[in-house]
Amino acid sequence: MCPDCNKMQIILEGEGIPFDTIDIAKDAEAIEKYGLSSVPVILIDSDEGQVKLNGIQPIEVIKELLEEE
Hints:
By secondary structure, the protein is an alpha+beta fold. 38% of the residues lie in helices and 17% in strands. The protein has one domain (3-67). The N and C termini lie far apart (28 Å).
């Protein structure tokens, strides 16, 4: 797992936020399916559609988006 992906995993786990991981080294189709160009990527489904966040994100941003679900 990339260092930034590992950091986000630790942050999400520390906040008790459930998540799924996709290893793009093992699932190359995910790159095209989700339109990935960098990692980590956080996908959040909201009332307004899917939100895609690239890179390490402040936990406050993630929590705010999750509250909008």
